[in-house]
Amino acid sequence: MESSAGREGDGLQDLTVNEVDVTLSKAMAHSNELVQRARQLQAHFQQAQRGMLEINRLCDQADSSIVQGQTLLNRSAHRIHELKQALERHQQALGTAPDISR
Fold it and tell me: What is the number of structural domains in the chain?
């Protein structure tokens, strides 16, 4: 009696062996479920990391493409400017040159 009174004093109820087995089985099932969920979360996290790496790779490619495009645009603008200057020089030269067709 003293042992059950001591357990009651601790707030524990008298449990049968079957009840303990059922409770332990439920606890094991919950534990296994938590382990499975943790594995699923880890798999999702790894997939997300792979996705982020792919996004970073695509962004790097886009940055490189933009730099190449800007470089080409700048070269083209510079070349157009040079051609305009050459055209103006030629027009000025033709305007001041004597008319040799007479």
Answer: 1
Domain with 55 in it: 2-94
Task: Decide if 67 is inside a domain.
Answer: yes
- Quote the CA–CA distance of 99 and 101 in Å, as a whole number: 6
102 within a domain of the structure (yes/no): no
For the chain, the residue count is: 102
Where would I find the H helices in 1-102?
2-9, 17-96
Q: Residue 25 falls within a domain, yes or no?
A: yes
Give me the tens of pLDDT residue by residue for the chain, a chain 102 residues long: 444 444 444 445 677 888 899 999 999 999 999 999 999 999 999 999 999 999 999 999 999 999 999 999 999 999 999 999 999 999 998 886 554 454
Find the farthest-apart pair of alpha carbons in the chain and give their distance in angstroms, rounded: 139
Please check whether residue 45 is in contact with residue 37, taking contact to mean a CB–CB distance below 8 angstroms.
Answer: no
